[in-house]
Amino acid sequence: PLQSAPLPEIAGHRAIVFAEDELVSSDEDALDHLTTGSGYTWMIVVAPDRQTPTRPPFAGVNALFGNLRNGPQFEGFWAGLDDDTAVWAGARNGRSFGRWNADNPKLSGPRLTEGAFVILAGRLEAGRGARRSELFAGSTVPVATATFPVVTAADPSRLAIGQERDATNHPGKESFHGRIARFLLWERPLSDPELAQAMTALGGLYGLDGKAAAAAVAGGG
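The chain above was modelled as a monomer; its predicted structure follows.
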């Protein structure tokens, strides 16, 4: 991926431009605990471009990030866009391959406007067994929730940005097209006040007020 020039739409900050690219962590096990008990919060400042339709039967996988294992059940957590820029997120516990099913619930959000930056976030409750998973788009009110069965034996892999995993079998495929200005990850679920504080801080830093956020999720481009 490449770095952009300063962008007036995010108060002069730069972003990383992804077009079938990925950034991959070298640490295989650094984030395993996020989906095996600690819970997590992620937050991203992102602007989608038009997505390249992905091949059947995996249509709608344009991954923003993920730490999925390279088979056989692809456990971990991830987020991305459908081919029409509708945002989604979820986690996979390694008990089955299905996409989507009770072991791999899909949190479906709104279509994002092409070219417009928005703050997205996801949160997974800490603990074992049935845990609450949430997706946020432009506000602290979740746009989707689901129950995720946490399995402590799951073994995710290294984190990739711009792709759902270290996809050595198809580099550049199922990848996100667009710009990412900031990606944040916490090793626990933030409280509601902490989540609001973090989203407000990012909104202020990047000039993304409530009006801009509403426009960015107002039905796609």
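Residues 192-206 form the longest helix (15 residues).
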